């Protein structure tokens, strides 16, 4: 069949990406077919269950590198062109077919089995591929042992693409990545960047088994691909870098899953898909994070050995074909003898999660359970368990180590005991994290008072663990935002409380990295300093400005290592306004001069923290300019509270242009969620609904409903906070407490 297609600029199908080489603008051609864009490149039955073998031939300019899923068998030169022939692939789905054509350097290694692994990147950046290459070679060996099936192709290429909509894509044998998810530069990448590269590489390589060798039957079962790859990537990274304590950071995955799943506009893990336009929106926290969390919960219930044996049988049984959720359950059921199907259906076929409330009555614990996506529905699980609670049990924690995908509400007495246990440092990382996270979530749902949440936060003043503090910081940001709406007169006192809360840990770490300190401390230092600057701590802001000035004169200065940059960039933006804009202009200059994607996205995420609405308006226009790659604009959308109205007006004015640039796909949904969700009034929710009423598209529908629901939740929270009688006294007491 003869056919034609467009080499488009929409980052889907067969598209073009631009880059500079020796000062000249060059183009590369790249494919991104998942979920349903192979059809833009060649005629095909473009559905995951229609597997076929692929024999690809490319005709390209002779000086370029041309890659596909399989190794090259022959090249024929013909003047300025060459024809490249590739080995026939094993049977596979259309969405995993890939082609990349451009100028590249690479680094190479081999696994003990002789599989050639390469990392390709722009010319001149090859050394930045070494870390990912090392992770990949080790991870292939790990997965071969874990799944008891070797990697199924003769080679594995991983390649960094400058314009790339997702984080990465697991094409069989030719995995494509954003530069930020594959390249690591010793001098300019932060510890957080290193961790991201390791986790993303481990995730994509997991797909070579879970997704590519065994593929979901239909998009309803997408979570089988994504939930599994997310969960198993933590297993791999924990094995390679045990000192990162990555399983403690898995709690962040669960939290994001719970956060979306608490909405009435959430969806079940197994979600009906009736139209290709609906698929993009389910690449979300439910498929990835709730999916990974229920897998972790099931693994901790069945036990790791039994679970691993079952996974190996599942892969062998369904290799080179397709599977649905029930197929996995039936293998796990055979292996474990447990009624897995019955156990798991309620977790994957309905949305929402249980909230278990616990109280002590006559020395027994009483449990009651209801579903979070529908606050009014009480399930019939009201049981009194005869667990004796005497004075010899000073505290009780339910959902040990937070392995279950549910939240717990304690009565006043149990909460006070847990607060005491936190202060006395009796609890594990997972338990400390879970108590705080559940409490915050229940406070936002108006089930617990903000007054008592703040008292609980105060108990974490001497906390040392990265994961717990990182969550404490993000909760502090959200609390400060809601207080600004509900009780603006208390905002300065709340900020003072947060500064006092984080100062102890910040002083322990200091500004400068210590010889031999842990990966987690390196990440924590930056997050703590960012928080202190955001809450207006003068000493932090002044020190940041001092270091920034030195950095502007010498980009390699040791006073501003990569782990500190985000904190310093945010700090120097705090006092920027129309008449004092030099830090903004300087940071923009750093953006223009760096060619490292990680540094560019770090700067975009810092510029938007400026409090001046006029500067933010200028910055938002800059995001849509040709200086910002369209996939990166989303990093600059989380504007400060002072500028949220500016951002909303800007979104309305530019909506048509944004639609034209992004078309369908999940990037456009980020504009809506980032700009709409932070509001907290019913009037604003209505205004948003009216604006989008005449601009509805199937691929934004779910995100829009979720964002409006978040505004309603915020509005109800504001109302509830205004009715708290003792909030002002409590905040003052906490802020001025002497330790």
TrEMBL record:
One of its GO terms (biological process) is proteolysis. Its EC number is 3.4.11.-. Binds 1 zinc ion per subunit. Residues 1-96 form the Aminopeptidase N-like N-terminal domain. The keyword Ribonucleoprotein does not apply. Zn(2+) binds at residues 203, 207, 226. This is Aminopeptidase.
């Amino acid at each position: 069949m003869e056919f034609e297609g467009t080499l488009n600029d929409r980052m889907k199908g067969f598209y073009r990406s631009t880059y500079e080489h020796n000062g000249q603008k060059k183009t590369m051609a790249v494919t991104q077919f998942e979920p349903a864009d192979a059809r833009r490149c060649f005629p095909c039955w473009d559905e995951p269950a229609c597997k076929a073998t692929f024999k690809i031939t490319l005709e390209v300019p002779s000086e370029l590198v041309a890659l596909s899923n399989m190794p090259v068998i022959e090249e024929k030169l013909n003047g300025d062109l060459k024809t490249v022939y590739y080995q026939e692939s094993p049977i596979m789905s259309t969405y995993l077919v890939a082609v990349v054509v451009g100028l590249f350097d690479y680094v190479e290694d081999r696994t003990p089995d002789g599989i050639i692994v390469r990392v390709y990147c722009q010319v001149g950046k090859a050394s930045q591929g070494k870390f990912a290459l090392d992770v990949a070679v080790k991870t292939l060996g790990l997965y071969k042992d874990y799944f008891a099936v070797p990697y199924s192709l003769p080679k594995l290429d991983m390649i960094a693409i400058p314009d790339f909509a997702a984080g990465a894509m697991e094409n069989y044998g030719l995995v494509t990545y954003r530069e930020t998810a594959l390249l690591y530069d010793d001098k300019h990448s932060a510890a957080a960047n290193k961790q991201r590269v390791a986790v993303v590489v481990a995730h994509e390589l997991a797909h070579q088994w879970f997704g590519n060798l065994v593929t979901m039957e239909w998009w309803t079962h997408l979570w089988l691909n994504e939930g599994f790859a997310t969960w198993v990537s933590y297993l791999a990274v924990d094995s390679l870098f045990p000192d990162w304590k990555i399983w403690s950071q898995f709690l962040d995955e669960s939290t994001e899953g719970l956060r979306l799943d608490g909405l009435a506009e959430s969806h079940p893990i197994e979600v009906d898909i009736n139209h290709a336009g609906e698929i993009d929106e389910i690449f979300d926290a439910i498929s990835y994070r709730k999916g990974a969390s229920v897998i972790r919960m099931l693994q901790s219930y069945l036990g790791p050995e039994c679970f691993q044996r079952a996974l190996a049988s599942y892969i062998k049984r369904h290799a080179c074909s397709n599977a649905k959720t029930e197929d996995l359950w039936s293998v796990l059921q055979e292996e474990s003898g447990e009624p897995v199907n019955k156990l798991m259906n309620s977790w994957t076929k309905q949305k929402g999660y249980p909230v278990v409330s616990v109280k002590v009555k006559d020395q027994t614990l009483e449990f009651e359970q209801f579903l979070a996506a529908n606050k009014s529905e009480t399930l019939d699980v009201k049981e009194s368990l005869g667990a004796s609670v005497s004075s010899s049990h000073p505290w009780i924690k339910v959902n040990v180590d937070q392995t279950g995908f549910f939240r717990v509400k304690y009565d006043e007495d149990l909460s006070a005991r847990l607060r005491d246990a936190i202060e006395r440092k009796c609890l594990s990382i997972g338990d400390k994290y879970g108590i705080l996270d559940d409490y915050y979530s229940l406070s936002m749902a108006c089930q617990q008072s903000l007054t008592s949440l703040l008292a609980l936060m105060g108990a974490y003043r001497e906390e040392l663990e990265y994961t717990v503090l990182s969550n404490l910081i993000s909760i502090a940001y959200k609390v400060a935002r809601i207080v600004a709406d509900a009780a603006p007169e208390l905002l300065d006192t709340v900020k003072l409380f947060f500064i006092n809360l984080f100062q102890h840990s910040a002083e322990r770490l200091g500004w400068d990295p210590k010889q031999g300190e842990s990966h987690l401390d390196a990440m924590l230092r930056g997050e703590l300093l960012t928080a202190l600057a955001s809450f207006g701590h003068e000493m932090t802001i002044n020190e940041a400005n001092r270091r920034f000035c030195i950095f502007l004169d010498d980009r390699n200065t040791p006073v501003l290592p990569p782990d500190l940059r985000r904190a310093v960039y945010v700090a120097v933006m705090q006092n920027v306004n129309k008449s004092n804009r030099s830090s903004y202009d300087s940071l923009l200059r750093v953006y223009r001069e760096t060619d490292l994607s990680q540094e560019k996205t770090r700067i975009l995420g810092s510029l938007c923290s400026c409090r001046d609405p006029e500067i933010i308006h200028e910055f938002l226009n800059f995001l849509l300019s040709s200086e910002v790659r369209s996939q990166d604009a989303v990093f600059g959308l989380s504007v400060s509270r002072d500028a949220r109205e500016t951002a909303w007006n800007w979104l309305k004015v530019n909506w048509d242009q944004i639609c034209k640039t992004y078309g369908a796909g999940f990037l456009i949904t980020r504009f809506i969620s980032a700009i709409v969700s932070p509001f907290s009034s019913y009037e604003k929710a209505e205004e948003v609904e009216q604006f989008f009423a005449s601009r509805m598209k199937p691929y934004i529908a779910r995100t829009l409903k979720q964002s409006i629901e978040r505004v309603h939740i915020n509005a109800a929270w504001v109302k509830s906070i205004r009715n708290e009688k003792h909030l002002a006294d409590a905040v003052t007491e906490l802020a001025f407490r002497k330790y």
